[in-house]
Structures are given as C-alpha cells and as structure tokens.
Amino acid sequence: MALVTFSNPEYKDKTVYAVAGSHTQSLLKLARENKIPIEFECEDGDCGTCLVKVTSVDKKPGRMGGPLTEKEKSILRQHGKITKEELEQMIVDDLPSPWRLACQMIVRDEDILVEY
Ligand code: FES
C-alpha cells in the first residue's frame, strides 16, 4: 500500500491509499477515483494540463514512480519545467523528476506528496 497525499492551496489535503503493484494505475486515475479535482484534458500525455509536483515522503531516494515517459519529457520541456541539461543530469544520476504528468505517472509502492 502506498499513501498518496494530494495537496492544493484551495482545498483540504487529502491522503488516499493506492493499491500498488498493478503498475497500471496512473496518478490521474487515482485522483479521479478519489474525487481530487486535478485538471486534465487529453489523458494521453499530450496537453500538459495535468502537470503536478511530486515529492517522495518515505525518504527512499530515487523512486517517485519511475522514469519520465517520452511524452512527459517533451511536455515538461515545452512548459519550461525542466531544461535539457537538467533532463540529461537526471538520466546520468538516475534522479526522479519533481514534475510529472498525472496521466502518465504510474503509482508505485511509495508514499508521495502530490501538489496540483
Ligand atoms: Fe493531457 Fe495529462 S491530461 S497531459
């Protein structure tokens, strides 16, 4: 079980359980199932509407839902959230990106804070 806390200045924080291990549940799907009002449009990694900031809270380094998908890399670059250099550094150092697309990020067995 992973604990996912959704946080937005306009709403009360909400922490939900995610059933980890299926490797198919996206962060956006989890949010929608729990009535978290994360904005979205395409649900396919193309529009960038579902951009969220993700922080690991269980202090295990280098996880946070696995590496960025190719679509995420492209959208994060377009939105100026990540530079080419930062992206290359993340790959070299195997670091997770703090910015993710909720529709692309698969929930793993780790506790995270999601700011939307
Ligand atoms: Fe369009 Fe996630 S909803 S990128």
Automatic annotation (TrEMBL):
<protein>
    <submittedName>
        <fullName>Ferredoxin</fullName>
    </submittedName>
</protein>
<dbReference type="InterPro" id="IPR006058">
    <property type="entry name" value="2Fe2S_fd_BS"/>
</dbReference>
<dbReference type="Pfam" id="PF00111">
    <property type="entry name" value="Fer2"/>
</dbReference>
<feature type="domain" description="2Fe-2S ferredoxin-type">
    <location>
        <begin position="2"/>
        <end position="116"/>
    </location>
</feature>
<dbReference type="InterPro" id="IPR036010">
    <property type="entry name" value="2Fe-2S_ferredoxin-like_sf"/>
</dbReference>
<dbReference type="InterPro" id="IPR001041">
    <property type="entry name" value="2Fe-2S_ferredoxin-type"/>
</dbReference>
<dbReference type="GO" id="GO:0051537">
    <property type="term" value="F:2 iron, 2 sulfur cluster binding"/>
</dbReference>
<dbReference type="InterPro" id="IPR012675">
    <property type="entry name" value="Beta-grasp_dom_sf"/>
</dbReference>
